[in-house]
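Thread: quick sanity check before group meeting

JM: Hey all, I'm pulling together slides for Thursday and realized we never actually wrote out the predicted structure for the chain we discussed last week. Dropping the sequence here so it's in one place. If anyone has concerns about the input, flag it before I start.
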Amino acid sequence: WMGWGGVAGGLGAWFPRLLFVCGLVLCLLCVFPVVTVSPKVDAAPLPASRAGEEPASTAEASTSGLLRAAARAAEALKAEDYGTLGDLVHPERGLTFTACSTVDLSADRNFTADEIRSLTENPRQYLWGYEDGRGSPILLTMEEFVRQYIFAVDYTQAPKVGVDQVVLSGNALENVAQAYPDCRFVDLCYPELDPDFGGLDWCSLKLVFTPLEGQWRLVGLIHSQWTI
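JM (edit): ok, ran it. Output follows.
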């Protein structure tokens, strides 16, 4: 059993070490202060403003701004106003069209903003993919593809809208979030067109956006429908 003298001797031996440890901790706190990180909000991060410029509007990066951009793109498609649609397209990434749900950025057709603006003047036929079930090649001009696939129905009146969420899916892989990890999307969906088909005629249009200088820029249009 250790008497008080032994205890005091033990404390005397450890006291200099204790002072050293406390001093080290204080030095580390001065060099590396504790930083708290705020939880991520629903707005996508915006690029830092350049010197002399107004800060990027956080409102434009919000979900409401995303929905406004999607509505504007849908209205432009409905009116076949490809000048306005081209103005929404990302100036560097362009706009990628996906014929049936599954995005393959290495194979899907991509066009610049200028090519979108002059869409109706391009007579060239492109291979957009293959028809579900039959496997026939989808060979169409840009204008034909937009009318027959991208905006075959009036998506400005879509009864279901998903934000960063796929409303309906079939057998085709829905990989929009994986294909566009730095983006957000709006899914405009018709759960059915004719009640007699029991929902087997559902279709949707996903509009994919990324933030640039405080505004949402369109980078992808994805057509989806019931598949075999």
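AS: nice. The beta strands are 95-98, 109-111, 126-130, 137-140, 160-163, 184-190, 203-212, 215-225. Confidence is low (pLDDT under 50) at residues 1-11, 18-22, 24-56.
JM: adding both to the slides.
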